[in-house]
Specification:
By secondary structure, this protein is α/β, with parallel strands linked by helices. Among the domains are: 53 residues; 74 residues, Helix Hairpins. The chain is built from 18 helices and 20 strands.
Length: 603
């Protein structure tokens, strides 16, 4: 096996209180692709900074192969004093690097190179920072949330670009599909230590669940052993003093072991405060148009959204996703066409841009609106500390200024504010940004259990596949089309990826993957929200149809009905025929889904 390009040994770091890193070991060999997984706050970004040489640990060693080049992408890029994005990218090149790569990559990422870094949006800043780390073609790429603020075409371009490079990769990301497509090994940072497997992210969650189940069994054995020893201490002490002292010392050691055990962090307790049920029709749009100057954002779009629908809206940055949502929810009037909102709508919105947050205010003030110690959750008061704990905030963070919160903590705060408001229509703009994988799972379950309607803008392909029932995508020139199913279903129906003119669909010829025959692991197929919902509801539907057929048949069993009431006979005959057809369709669909579920469970 080739010697490692970078190796961290026995890394320890504490920022006061509980140690963040306790004896971490990590090595990366040439061409290796490692995804670094862990809960928000587990120390992933800090560990990546130690690997990049930007943070000094309390103890431990960092070895880098002499001559190896490293480039690090931080979550918050620093543009320094550079006046243009091109100057920023060129400053990252070493003598002998190809200077043309700087402009080439900027163009591939939709930038001209003349942009002032001070005026960049979050997505533009991320693309400029990516160009800077990719341009030198380093031996090791350390990437911290590279897909944050990127649109889907850029994420898919970045996937192809990284897949075609020889650089070793260490990736931190909440994007499951991105990790599954690129990683070949997984390093799980959990409670200060790293566990590693030589399999990509697609195998991680099943492996993690096995590890935690085994850990739980070991803790149960330890608890039973302590109980037995304590029983001996109370009832079984004999006259052999020397043996008793040793056994008592063992009991103290067992208790110390139990005290020092760091259990896994709890899961967020996400629950939307639901208002009274809305009408069956939630939104009806007919031939809606919107333009800004000569540019058409929406041109002749029509849709009908009903209660319980989960609508995903996708597209490149600048395509008009937020404008379309504002038109559909009544936030903006259309230039032409009509939008009709259903009865009894109560809308809650997640403002993912976070402009509404005062960075100087505290966490408690942001949740309570600066009024007292209680949050109004579903119209009822709940103590702010209890509500904070639902979203994995510690009691000590109550007075923490928002400006020092991590990206994941700010994401959870925005969710907490949005979900406190009673609603039957949730409008979520990039709800997955900065959330760890466990919190994403809880958010997905919450949306699955939510009785109202959901509209969400997202660039997370896996999340869309798991949650939405249909996807609205732009086709260019203001045209938007709604596709049934999730993101993968939309691609299958369109027959093409989403594209942005500035992002090319092919990486340059010289970037072809030299490891094309490396084994890849496709992400495991899961039942979509639609499919799970159908499996749960179809048996009741079939039961209702069978009862309806029996009732109609009882009417037709009357031998005098035809002669006495010909119209009723015809109507009942037509109704029973339709009910039989509906029952056959439901049974066929249920059987298909049951077979699919069994295939997935056996895969």
């Amino acid at each position: 096996m080739a010697p490692p390009l970078i190796q961290l040994r026995d890394i320890r770091l504490t920022f006061g209180g509980t140690p963040l890193l306790t004896g971490v070991e990590l090595s990366v060999s040439p061409g290796e692709r490692v995804c670094l997984i862990g809960r928000n706050g587990s120390g992933k970004s800090t560990l990546l900074k130690i690997a990049a040489g930007l943070v000094e640990p309390d103890s431990g060693t960092r070895f880098v192969q002499p001559g190896a080049t490293i480039r690090y992408l931080p979550q918050e890029p620093d543009f320094g004093e550079h006046e243009t994005t091109l100057a920023h990218v060129e400053a990252g090149l070493a003598p002998g690097d190809d200077r043309h790569q700087a402009r080439y990559l900027l163009e591939q990422l939709g930038l001209t190179g003349n942009e002032n870094p001070a005026n960049l949006s979050g997505g533009e800043a991320r693309r400029a920072a990516l160009a800077r780390v990719l341009a030198p073609s380093p031996d090791i790429l350390l990437l911290d949330e590279p897909t944050n603020h990127l649109d889907l075409p850029t994420i898919e371009w970045l996937e192809r670009e990284l897949d075609g490079r020889r650089s070793a990769l260490v990736l931190i990301s909440h994007d499951r599909r991105f990790l599954a497509n690129l990683s070949r090994a997984t390093a799980w940072l959990d409670r200060g230590k790293i566990r590693q497997i030589d399999r990509g992210f697609a195998a991680f969650e099943a492996w993690r669940d096995e590890v935690l189940a085994e850990e739980e069994r070991e803790q149960h054995k330890l608890d039973r052993k302590i109980v037995d020893e304590e029983h001996w201490l109370r009832h079984g002490v004999s006259g052999r003093r020397k043996r008793n002292v040793k056994r008592l010392a063992n009991l103290h050691a067992l208790r110390a072991q139990r005290r020092n055990y760091r259990g896994t962090a709890g899961s967020a307790n996400l629950a939307a405060s639901e208002a009274e049920q809305s009408g069956r029709l939630v939104i009806e749009a007919k031939a809606v148009c919107k333009a800004y100057g000569a540019r058409r954002i929406v041109d002749g779009f029509s849709t009908r959204i009903q209660r319980g629908d989960r609508i995903g809206i996708v597209g490149p940055n600048g395509a008009g996703k937020t404008t379309l949502v504002n038109l559909l929810t009544g936030g903006e009037p259309p230039d032409s066409g009509t939008v009709r909102l259903g009865a009894n709508l109560e809308m809650a919105t997640l403002d993912q841009h976070r402009e509404s947050l005062d960075p100087k205010s505290t966490l408690a003030e942001a949740l309570t609106g600066g009024r007292g110690d209680h949050v109004m959750v579903g119209g009822k008061p709940k103590h702010v500390v209890g509500y904070m704990k639902d979203f994995l905030f510690a009691q000590e963070q109550r007075g923490t200024p928002l400006e020092v919160l991590s990206g994941g903590e700010r994401g959870r705060l925005m969710l907490a504010r949005a979900l406190a408001k009673p609603s039957n229509l949730l409008v979520l703009d990039e709800p997955t940004n900065d959330l760890d994988l466990e919190t994403l799972d809880v958010l997905e379950e919450m949306l699955g259990d939510y009785d109202g309607t959901v509209m969400l803008i997202s660039h997370d392909r896996d999340f869309l596949d798991r949650v939405v029932t249909s996807v609205i995508a732009p086709e260019g020139n203001g045209k938007w089309i709604e596709y049934a199913g999730g993101y993968s279903d939309m691609l299958a129906q369109r027959g093409a990826d989403l594209k942005r003119e500035a992002v090319k669909t092919q990486a340059p010829a010289e970037k072809k993957d030299t490891r094309a025959d490396a084994p890849t692991t496709a992400p495991k197929r899961r039942l979509s929200f639609n499919e799970k919902h159908a499996l749960e509801t179809l048996p009741k539907t079939m039961e209702t149809l069978q009862a309806q057929i029996a009732k109609l048949q009882a009417i037709l069993d009357d031998p005098d009905l035809y002669a006495r009431d010909r119209k009723k006979f015809d109507a009942t005959s037509a109704a029973i025929a339709k009910a039989h057809d509906d029952l056959a369709t439901a049974e066929h669909r249920w059987l298909e889904l049951e077979m699919l579920r069994e295939e997935i469970e056996q895969a």
